[in-house]
Amino acid sequence: MSTEAATGGLNEYIAHHLTHNVVSFGTGFHLDTWLVSLVLGLLFVLWFGLKARKATAGVPSKGQAFVEIIVEFIDGQVKDTFHGDRRSVTPLALTIFMWIVFMNTMDLVPLDLPGWLVQTTAGHEVAHHTYWRLVPTADLNTTFGLSASVFFILLGHAIAAKGGFGFGKELLTAPFHAHGAMAFVLAPVNLFMNIIEWLVKPVSLAMRLFGNMYGGELVFMLIAGLLAGWATFVPGIIANTAWAIFHILIILLQAFIFMILTVVYIAGARESH
Known about the structure:
This protein has 273 residues and is an all-alpha fold. It has one domain (3-269). It is 77% helix and 2% strand. It contains nine helices and two strands. A two-stranded antiparallel ribbon has the order 1-2. Strand 1 (22-24) and strand 2 form a beta hairpin. The longest helix has 46 residues, at 181-226. The radius of gyration is 23 Å and the shape is globular. The relative contact order is 0.13.
């Protein structure tokens, strides 16, 4: 096979795996992203819910002990960062962390598994025209959806802590404080800077998570190209294993960063300038 043919085959392979399963509802709706996210979210709720219902005060089972370690870890992180009432913040942080971990972990599932399942059940031609991406967090819609939810939660905490009038006043009077006529002059500047500050938070959350997971997914696809040839098969296996081990750290780290920044932003939203 020529270099051009091999490159063309790899490009076609990557393009196929980067294409979403789209259902048209006026705009393109990513069915694969929505369905995988929903199933993983329900699995998290079912797992933790069952362990909570079966929890005992005596010697815990291994499953209960594992869940308790996760909950205590998240609660400890929230306690160190947020010094108010944690009863609603800890469950939010736990949900964000575990759901993102579940979605990120789909990056470790073999790329060709969905295609192989479709090919086994429906044939090669159907599989060739069937698209299914397994990593919801490698879809910008998912990460912006999560960060938008966090954004409205932040607004809710800010208004709950300061009141609508107090929050509005802060938007107009901070960070540049002034008195008299100068306060009116600086009010538009303060409002503009606060709007930028508030919008940067969800955008940075979304882009950071998306960029890391999309990049990791792309590396897996490039490594998969090595497995197509006999000469590169063994190096491909080694590279794939090494990247998968390293990617486990990225999976956990990105979930932790998204979670801890959410808690930091909540703490900041409840404090005055």
